Amino acid sequence: MAPSKPLSRRMQKQGPPEPLNEGFFGKKRKSAAPTNGAIKKQKKGGNAPAVKAVANGGPKHAANSAGKKSTKGDFKTQQKIAKQPLSLEEDEDDVSDLSGDAIDDADVMEDGLSGLAGADLDDALDSDAEDFADAPSDLEEEDLLDEDQDVVQKGVWSEDDDSDGEEALTAANIAGLSQKLDARRAEEEEDAEQELADDALQTNIAPADLDLSDDEAGKTSSLAPDLQLLRTRITEAVRVLSNFKELRDPTRSRADYTQAVLKDIVAYYGYSPFLAEKLFGLFTPQEALAFFDANETPRPMVLRTNTLRTHRRDLAHVLINRGVSLEPVGKWSKVGLQIFESQVPLGATPEYLAGHYILQAASSFLPVMALAPQEHERVLDMAAAPGGKTTHMAALMKNTGCIFANDASKDRAKGLIGNIHRLGVKNTIVCNYSAQEFPRVMGGFDRVLLDAPCSGTGVIAKDPSVKTNKTPDDFLRLPHLQKQLLLSAIDSVDHASKTGGYIVYSTCSVTVEENEQVVQYALNQRPNVRLVSTGLVFGKEGFTRYQSKRFHPSLKETRRYYPHAFNVDGFFVAKFKKFGPTGATAVKAQGTPAEVARLATNSKADAEAEGVANGDHDEVPENSDEEVAEETEFGGFDEDEDQVYIERSLKKTMRRKGIDFRATKSKAVKALHPERVTNGETVKVNGVVEKATEDDVKVNGKKVVVDGSSKVNEAKKEKKKSAKKAV
Ligand SMILES: C[S@@+](CC[C@H](N)C(=O)[O-])C[C@H]1O[C@@H](n2cnc3c(N)ncnc32)[C@H](O)[C@@H]1O
């Protein structure tokens, strides 16, 4: 039997870890696979038993799952299906190890599966799974082996020879063989050189930055550093650091080794020295290396079944028939499907357009599963665009209750509206505030999700620019914003909620500044909350100590996710329970309403400007350009149209109050339309006559005095106030 190689990451399951293995650290870098459009066939990792067994069960499975008689035209699809390890029987697995809220979550999803395609189909799928496992090993073996296995099985003798082996070789064909081997070796050497050159191009290395003059790496070509040598040196340094007492060179300190390995990591993987050090410090040296390696390969593409429109099993069948090779994402999710290969762009299938699924990273299921929103609740999603998590919540709530989906970026909120409509969500109201403005805008929610804007250090595989574009300032600015938003999230929850009173804080970053430190700050500022279990069945515990910092022991309840450990994006999830009202002093400490409003306006402007840079790396952007344009149009905000609605509602209110609209019309309408002030025009401000500048705005003849960016917001507030007064 051919030795089996480890599966490539995209073929590996997402979820609980397999033990790390030494061989992994010697792995070469790979370039990221494309995630857009149809996914190219992925190289099968040589998992011989699985491939063979599945293949043997294939045609029968295909016929059953398609529910059709096999025709010649169908056969290609069947072969494709045959090669994938489909096993949907885990839909029925219980999740008894989920606790608390997560059980509710599972209930919802269980229900989602109750109307599946019937017993026949279930039997067919289940028995197929058994067939795969029991398949005899000698059936059609050659057809089923992938290229790598082929080489191992046949040895290096000849592509034409079968395994009759050496005995069949004559002196003549030994000579021929020798020539063939030479040619192959030359070819391989050429390939290896090319690969190294490609690797060098993919790395942001300035050769001049590498001080390798004192060692062999410096003797290499001036075009690129010797990546292989760097790799060997990194691996060796990590080995020594992992067993420092025994393996160290007595003349070198731990700091020497660490500095040297960091320098090599910077050169090899292309990180800024600052970020390499920050990330290296999070792990043991060995794990850090695994983390850096994992960031070089993309995570598997995953889609979330929209249970408002379909069931996972039905969706899987339809997509399989379209030539998609897929598998349930793992036992921990009832709605995720991991995609291995697709003949069609997954952002343009009829099922996608009909909202049967959304392309969403597996890790972003986790915060919603932790929040576990219940039917008929009032829920706030504070930073919601483009809506992966909002629409997941709506599905768990079965379109009941009410979700307020807020995002500070109006542009991104358009995408959110598009997704809400495509996925058939009907219980959601979209709003466009800076989250700091809550709970002033509205409070008393049963649950709040804060999926915060962040640095994106957990999603480097998706966005390699993070390697170099984050500065120390980002790790001050972002945590500052995250802390403010988390306090707002806590204050927006009703501690007396009969069903909830929960807040979930999540980021797609792995740094302590954006996670444990933010949570600790919230615990300090809000003694009316405590951390509770996330109910998630996998994930590493959050830090309770990190370098010189000490956190509350309950930080153990938070969960960290890493690409190298779980094959998911790096993520952090914390769940709080609010058990008392927020004290007046705590609220005061946040600043006066004017100060908070100013901060909110500023961070709103930041969100508009920064967009993706603020950590939305969630959804695979597969929508076609036309589609995006359509969604934008569809979800667009039309101020003039809004004005008509506002006036209409104003009229209604006045009529209800018995006020004659026409009599007060001029006053009311004037209040609704702030005028631009002409430069130099005099206006009264608090009874004092002043000259206005061209930026100023006046409402009812009164100049609105505001500074800089908050001008428009203040004007709007003033406008509302005057309109109310007029009524
Ligand atoms: C990580 S993304 C959210 C992804 C989203 N939860 C999802 O699942 O699709 C962070 C979002 O925060 C928004 N944002 C940034 N600053 C904000 C603020 N002050 N208030 C509210 N939203 C903000 C960004 O526009 C961005 O859409």
TrEMBL record:
<keyword id="KW-0808">Transferase</keyword>
<dbReference type="GO" id="GO:0000470">
    <property type="term" value="P:maturation of LSU-rRNA"/>
</dbReference>
<feature type="compositionally biased region" description="Acidic residues">
    <location>
        <begin position="188"/>
        <end position="198"/>
    </location>
</feature>
<feature type="compositionally biased region" description="Acidic residues">
    <location>
        <begin position="88"/>
        <end position="110"/>
    </location>
</feature>
<keyword id="KW-0489">Methyltransferase</keyword>
<dbReference type="GO" id="GO:0070475">
    <property type="term" value="P:rRNA base methylation"/>
</dbReference>
<dbReference type="Pfam" id="PF01189">
    <property type="entry name" value="Methyltr_RsmB-F"/>
</dbReference>
<feature type="binding site">
    <location>
        <begin position="383"/>
        <end position="389"/>
    </location>
    <ligand>
        <name>S-adenosyl-L-methionine</name>
    </ligand>
</feature>
<dbReference type="InterPro" id="IPR049560">
    <property type="entry name" value="MeTrfase_RsmB-F_NOP2_cat"/>
</dbReference>
<feature type="binding site">
    <location>
        <position position="451"/>
    </location>
    <ligand>
        <name>S-adenosyl-L-methionine</name>
    </ligand>
</feature>
<feature type="region of interest" description="Disordered">
    <location>
        <begin position="1"/>
        <end position="165"/>
    </location>
</feature>
<dbReference type="InterPro" id="IPR018314">
    <property type="entry name" value="RsmB/NOL1/NOP2-like_CS"/>
</dbReference>
<feature type="region of interest" description="Disordered">
    <location>
        <begin position="604"/>
        <end position="623"/>
    </location>
</feature>
<dbReference type="InterPro" id="IPR011023">
    <property type="entry name" value="Nop2p"/>
</dbReference>
<protein>
    <recommendedName>
        <fullName>Nucleolar protein 2</fullName>
    </recommendedName>
</protein>
<feature type="region of interest" description="Disordered">
    <location>
        <begin position="181"/>
        <end position="203"/>
    </location>
</feature>
<dbReference type="InterPro" id="IPR023267">
    <property type="entry name" value="RCMT"/>
</dbReference>
<dbReference type="GO" id="GO:0005730">
    <property type="term" value="C:nucleolus"/>
</dbReference>
<feature type="region of interest" description="Disordered">
    <location>
        <begin position="707"/>
        <end position="727"/>
    </location>
</feature>
<feature type="compositionally biased region" description="Acidic residues">
    <location>
        <begin position="120"/>
        <end position="150"/>
    </location>
</feature>
<feature type="binding site">
    <location>
        <position position="407"/>
    </location>
    <ligand>
        <name>S-adenosyl-L-methionine</name>
    </ligand>
</feature>
<keyword id="KW-0690">Ribosome biogenesis</keyword>
<dbReference type="InterPro" id="IPR001678">
    <property type="entry name" value="MeTrfase_RsmB-F_NOP2_dom"/>
</dbReference>
<feature type="active site" description="Nucleophile">
    <location>
        <position position="508"/>
    </location>
</feature>
<feature type="domain" description="SAM-dependent MTase RsmB/NOP-type">
    <location>
        <begin position="291"/>
        <end position="579"/>
    </location>
</feature>
<feature type="compositionally biased region" description="Basic residues">
    <location>
        <begin position="718"/>
        <end position="727"/>
    </location>
</feature>
<comment type="similarity">
    <text>Belongs to the class I-like SAM-binding methyltransferase superfamily. RsmB/NOP family.</text>
</comment>
<dbReference type="GO" id="GO:0003723">
    <property type="term" value="F:RNA binding"/>
</dbReference>
<keyword id="KW-0949">S-adenosyl-L-methionine</keyword>
<keyword id="KW-0694">RNA-binding</keyword>
<keyword id="KW-0539">Nucleus</keyword>
<dbReference type="InterPro" id="IPR029063">
    <property type="entry name" value="SAM-dependent_MTases_sf"/>
</dbReference>
<dbReference type="GO" id="GO:0009383">
    <property type="term" value="F:rRNA (cytosine-C5-)-methyltransferase activity"/>
</dbReference>
<dbReference type="InterPro" id="IPR023273">
    <property type="entry name" value="RCMT_NOP2"/>
</dbReference>
